[in-house]
Amino acid sequence: MEKINERLRKNQDNKELKAAKKKIETDYLPRMKKYEEQEEIFEERNSYSKTDHDATFMRMKEDHMGNGQLKPGYNVQIGTQNQFILGYSIYRRPGDTGCLIEHLEKQKEGIGFYPEQVIADAGYGSEENYQYLEEQEIEGYVKYNSFHQEQKRDYKKKHPYHVANFVYHEEIDQYECPQGKRLVWLKTEPYRSSNGHESERRIYECQDCSGCPVKDKCTKASGNRRIQIGVELEKYRQQARDKLNSEEGRALRSLRSVEVETVFGRLKQNWGFRRFLLRGIEKVSTEWGILSIAHNIAKAAVA
Q1: Are 88 and 109 a contacting pair, CB within 8 Å?
Q2: Partner of 206 at 20 to 30 A CA spacing, among 77, 157, 175, 269?
Q3: 160-205 per-position pLDDT tens digit
Q4: Where are the domains positioned within the chain?
Q5: Does the reported pTM lie above 0.85?
Q6: What is the CATH number of domain 56-147+245-302?
């Protein structure tokens, strides 16, 4: 604008320049200010509600139209024991993966210690979360995204060329595909998750996929098949797999659905709580806190 004003001082009769200045002042600058304000509201999100800037558009379980409609809302996390709510936290992001650590830290602030065990579903099974539980000496029974599929008898038959079905030869650091071909280490690359956790991924490549009768089923690449392995993640997944399939793990997996889902079911179905009445994450957190206290009192009364 300074350059335009300088040119207008030298040539006050320039109609095109005056029109351009007016367009900038009445259109471009207000729009730029509006966009900057919206970016501040967005922060790390990709959406927000016009009537509640803290609320983010998410897919809800109650999708009566069956079209995956997005609605503004909050992600509520709770920790329970014997169906009593021990702690809760409210988030503006839809995914559960990035909530576990912050939720446990907040719960520790409230009750003074970490839980001895954490039982959680596949939404929390990330390398970062597994590592955190290990560092805090918390016994975790946390599923990962493909755990349930792996438990099915026909998993290998339906997904024969999934990397989980490749055999790893630790002594030579090579993988073997179902066709008996070897995949050798190619390179190691840095990896950064959507939550900012940094780790490494090892890339392995098949020595020769040419002439393989199932190449079109194994890979869409024009060259040789490559696989990406998170060494630490695979280690944690194996530990989780062993724990979850143990006798205690199976019992705790069943208990989780009775614990958390029962609490949410009681609040939503029995009490009819399906939407927050207040707006803004602080007020929403207070509202959920009051609801949690009421739930615990009601639970204690019939215990």
Answers
A1: no
A2: 157
A3: 899 988 999 999 999 999 999 999 999 999 999 888 899 999 999 9
A4: 2-42, 56-147+245-302, 152-232
A5: no
A6: 3.30.420
